[in-house]
């Protein structure tokens, strides 16, 4: 945990000093792009605890850095196929990447040609896709950016029209890639939820009504106590999420709903100022809402959990 704590402090300080830094600068200065990359490929060779620490800090400040899709999902996908050249490029921060999982688009792979549409994809220069049972790289014929509610997490539509692909290998590891993505997102959600709690507590101490801080009123005390339980439980779920599909499904469900609750209650504690452009509370609610759809809503995670627990899936 000592390494994770040190890494957390470094990332927090860097994001505070350079909130608008590019991915390349972030990767160069902190080495974050190669966090999960083995040392033989030029990475740090860290594990799930360090992953959670970094993701929490990114979620805490709603950072737009493409850590989730590039340093987590794309790295895991390339490693699983033995695509060392791609791993090294990702580890050095030379490029960003997005991964398209099975079912994320209507795609057809005929030989070495890809046709179809991915309606929603995270931002990334390199596009890796699971299609036809293999992992491929393809350059979209067209990219269309959406105007999203959460501007800190850009989404794109990707069009492929008989597009040539580069094959990397078997695509059977896609579930592991998905689960690691869910784990990283859960840690981001836990970090965002904690920041919502911090903001709510700070405001409850400073805001006075009837000559007293509003935090002294029983209704606010209970609200903040409930939030503390949610936030601590979300962090525990996020830390366990990288272990197996079951823990990932638990975190995907619990952390999503905990973040939504924390973001909503933060606005309630702040009252009218919480919905103004001058205060960031609304931005956390937008991120929590968009995150709730990224790998499917909480119900989809619970359905997958039920299949593992009850159906032997």
TrEMBL record:
InterPro entries: AcylCo_DH-like_C, AcylCo_DH/oxidase_C, AcylCoA_DH/ox_N, AcylCoA_DH/ox_N_sf, AcylCoA_DH/oxidase_NM_dom_sf. Keywords: FAD, Flavoprotein, Oxidoreductase. It holds the Pfam family Acyl-CoA_dh_1. One of its GO terms (molecular function) is oxidoreductase activity. Its cofactor is FAD. Belongs to the acyl-CoA dehydrogenase family. This is Acyl-CoA dehydrogenase family protein. The lineage of its organism: Bacteria, Bacillati, Actinomycetota, Actinomycetes, Streptosporangiales.
